[in-house]
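Team,

Forwarding the record for the chain on the shared tracking sheet. I've put the sequence and predicted structure together so nobody has to dig through attachments.
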Amino acid sequence: MSETAASETAPARGAATPKRGVFSRWRRDPLLPEAGAGGAPLTAVIAVMSFLAVLAMAAVLIIHQSAGRWTAELQSEITVQIKGVDAAEIAAGASAAIRVLNETEGVEEAVLKSDEETAALLEPWLGKGNAEAFLTIPALIDVKVTPALRADLDPLRESLAAAAPGATLDDHATWHNRLAMAAQSGQALAVLVFLLVMGAACAVSMFAARAGLAANHEIVSVLHLVGATDEFIAAEVQRRFFVLGLRGALAGMAAALTALAGAAFLLERGVGADSFLPQFTIGGWHALWLFTVPLATCLVTAYTARLTVLKALRSQY
């Protein structure tokens, strides 16, 4: 071959050499066709699972936040109730109870509720205006106490009973225990739902990987003929499932965040809902937990597909 011919063929050979970038492996076309690996149906299923997983994680965070706020209020506050046969006796007992509370060490604040505020607490059960019209409403005193005083409330109970015979002290212990148990049960249920969704994602990934491997049997055989290893083929399948899982997981998260925002909007405008239902106030570090759900979903999907393909290849080829 002459030098002229060699110089003419060199640029052609150099021009045919593909350029490889850092992300070229992820941009190129997959070796296995998308239809064989699940494609759009698999993406839709993963989107639904990601939607449910994000809602389950949000439920865990909301219950934890709300229960922590409610139990903290119950632990730092007690309620003193003053009963009597008429308004004058109730007023005298309330004045005596306030005097005892102000003289007690460990009482940070004692606030006597007005008759209107006390009657408003009974409106959900008795209706508006019925409490003042037909009942002698007891007086309620909201008291904030220190942890040291709350640890032993018996001396305060005795002092209140001596000063105001119609006074009773409620430390909210029963409500605190019930609320804590309900919160723990709700969190456990939400975690169980999250784990079930992740398990379903694994199962779907396994079936889709096996179906894709069976549908592309000829391509897998050709890859083996040209020297491709089982690890290489499994890595290709893992890459495909990671991309499909990421698409579906992000779509599901977007739908879940939209649903949560809509629920928060409706809850803020619900009549009386803010008195009984927790608020959707997820932010800061709590929000990061929601963003881990799509990543966990696509990682579970991809790794399960890899293990499934490796097991199938080693048993069939």
